[in-house]
Amino acid sequence: MPATPARRRLRELLDKRELIVAPGVFDGISAQLTKRTGQAAAYMTGAGVAASGFGLPDIGLVTATEMAGRAAMIADALGDIPLIADADTGYGAPMNVVRTVRSYDVAGVAAIQLEDQVFPKRCGHLPDKQVVDAPVFEQTLAAALDARSDDGLLVVARTDARGPLGLDAAIERANRYAQAGADIIFVEAPQDAAEIERIAAEVDAPLLINLVVGGMTPLESASRLQELGYAIAIHPGNLLVQATFGMLQSLCELNGTEIAPHLPAAPADFFNLVGMSEWLDLDTRYARKDASWA
């Protein structure tokens, strides 16, 4: 398909070298309000889609088909506002990645984000993440770059190596992924201002940073990120957290209970509102298979 107005718009914004601020959208009303308040771009948050669309935590439970369907609806609601869309790990081997990219391409997203976590993935601001070897993710990138219908669909390469392997490894991977052809690089979860600055100085590519309310990364100002040279700042949780607070407040008013026990203070608390602890218990139970089962 030819480059859409939204894809052309995202490229134009990047070429201006001014920080693009993209709020996290996850449903029709969040997309419509993002458009109607004049935002420059939007980010389809996988965590938000999992929670709001399916009542699930962001631990790899939502499928490629479900995500692509949500991306199409959100892109349609946004119109010419560029949508950067989370596609997790690509949902399988390179051939699965091809299908994922084709689906997101048809959905009309302006950029697709892929990450180097082991499947099933976890939210980038949860502990105990694991990553695949860098050459494995480079195969994912190669498949994604080949599968897109035009160069207007940008590919965002995210590395989650900071947590399990350290910042040096994350920066090394970031530069590898840029050299492999990724249009935008995303080093997930730097843990202080010095790390944010070092990523900006040592990664030679347009950079995306993820600012999560209550997450591992300090919430740097837009002016500081612009000064450091970041291209995009996504705010995946802002709308979701406010919407969740509003719903909890209304529900507790209806039955006269206290809101305080339900309020999340960190990403893990939020995901427990949609059953993360129960899902992880299931994962632990079935991972401990008796030898007699073989």
Automatic annotation (TrEMBL):
InterPro entries: ICL/PEPM, Isocitrate_lyase_ph_CS, Pyrv/PenolPyrv_kinase-like_dom, Pyrv_kinase-like_dom_sf. GO terms for molecular function: oxo-acid-lyase activity. Pfam families: PEP_mutase. SUPFAM superfamilies: Phosphoenolpyruvate/pyruvate domain. Transmembrane segments: none annotated. This is Carboxyvinyl-carboxyphosphonate phosphorylmutase. It comes from Mycobacterium saskatchewanense. The lineage of its organism: Bacteria, Bacillati, Actinomycetota, Actinomycetes, Mycobacteriales.
